[in-house]
Amino acid sequence: MVLSGYDANAPATPPGDVCQPFEFSPGDALSFFGSFSLQVWPAAALSLSQASGSPFTSVTLTGSGFDPTETVEIYGGHIGVPPLFASTTTDATGSFSVSAREPQHPYGSMDVYAVGVSSHKLGAATLSVTPALAMNPATGVPGGSTAAYSFGFGAGEAVDIYWNNSRQLLGTATANAEGSGDLTITIPANASPGINAVIGVGQTTSAIGVGGIKVQ
Amino acid sequence: MTPDTALGKLPRARSQAWPSLVPLMLLMVPLSAYSQTTLTGAMLFTTTSTGAWNNYSELNTVGGDPVWDLWLALNPDATSPVNGPSDAEAGISIPLQAGKSYKYYWFGSGSCCTSSDSFTALNLFFNGSTSTPGISVFGALNNASFAPDGNTTITLEAAPVAGSGASF
């Protein structure tokens, strides 16, 4: 069973003069409203090679109970909403195993759905999305600049980017709806040669992502 | 409670290719082979932007308790109610069949949300459970997008409990 829709609206201005028979006890009058949708699917099975990971991490997805040699489309987040996590074909026993990169998604739980295109069977699992930072270029010199890409933070949240040693704030990135963002940073003049850590701290979720850069 | 849509019509990306397969699918799937699930409770409450219960407003499908009632209907003008209209009739017991989809409209009263916490969450309870939500989601007000809620939510009796962290 899948909750395929949910919305809440306030202040309530529903169509017409509705709900008058209802007893809004101990409240007063209708003040908010919404809807939800449920779908009940014939069941298949889906499992993941790991319980958590950052976007672009390679994950192995294993499924069974589908029809033989059918196409299975795998979504991260909501059924039918692109981008696809993966697409594969089952073997003669209705099973599959496929590796794919975790799609961009905000911090927290991500539902993963495998849908048999012809059988309409559904396998489901959850993956906890964790934050990460990636630098491009991943090498630089003191005083030089690079781009810090943040992934897996909260949707729309501010992400403070720090140089780890010595700790100093480099700037603040803003995550998009998928929890991703970017910021051009300046490598501190006193940065030590070698691998240095750069840390992103989500200001709403308090999620922490770490990346590295090689200072030459 | 009437299923409003055949399952095969729902996936957005495949909606053009599936409808013709629906009659065949229904013939081939022995529905009696699936154990039936019954939706027996719903709790709607306000949360922070990360889905954490903020103890500001709660609505449930339980009669005789101090929590405000959550009214369900099959249509947006509530002319086909599922529960109510009295507090004593707030409970629900909705069998859900494999291969079907269902849509419910809900209505509530109460102090909903502050400007800084304009988020709500929905916990659904199945097969008589009142303490462990089977499905937990949350989303911003006046917005159709939602996400699984694995943060602190509440039971059907409004006690703190971890959300299911999944919408299935």
Features:
A: 216 residues; mainly beta; 5-stranded mixed sheet; 18 strands; 54% strand; B: mainly beta; two-stranded antiparallel sheet; 1 helix; 37% strand; disordered N terminus
Would you mind describing this structure in some detail?
The complex is a heterodimer of chains A (216) and B (168). Chain A has 216 residues and is an all-beta fold. Chain A folds into two domains: 45-129, Neocarzinostatin-like (Immunoglobulin-like), CATH 2.60.40.230; 132-215, Macroglobulin (MG2) domain (Immunoglobulin-like), CATH 2.60.40. In chain A, 0% of the residues lie in helices and 54% in strands. Chain A has strands spanning 2-9, 30-39, 45-48, 52-53, 58-64, 71-76, 84-89, 96-101, 108-116, 122-129, 132-136, 139-140, 145-151, 158-163, 168-174, 181-186, 194-202, 208-215. In chain A, the strands form five sheets. A five-stranded mixed beta sheet of chain A has the order 4-10-9-6-7, with no helix packed on it. Chain A has a five-stranded mixed beta sheet with strand order 12-18-17-14-15, with no helix packed on it. Chain A has a three-stranded antiparallel beta sheet with strand order 3-5-8, with no helix packed on it. In chain A, strand 6 (71-76) and strand 7 (84-89) form a beta hairpin. Chain A is flat. In chain A, 46% of the residues are buried. Chain B has 168 residues and is mainly beta. Chain B has one domain (5-162). In chain B, strands 1, 2, 3, 4, 5, 6, 7, 8 and 9 form a nine-stranded mixed beta sheet that branches. The longest helix of chain B is centred in the first third of the chain and has 7 residues, at 22-28. Chain B starts with a strand and ends in a 6-residue tail after the last strand. In chain B, 42% of the residues are buried. Mean pLDDT of chain B is 81; it is low at 1-33. Chains A and B meet through strand 1, strand 2, strand 9 and strand 10 of A and strand 2, strand 4, strand 6, strand 7 and strand 8 of B.
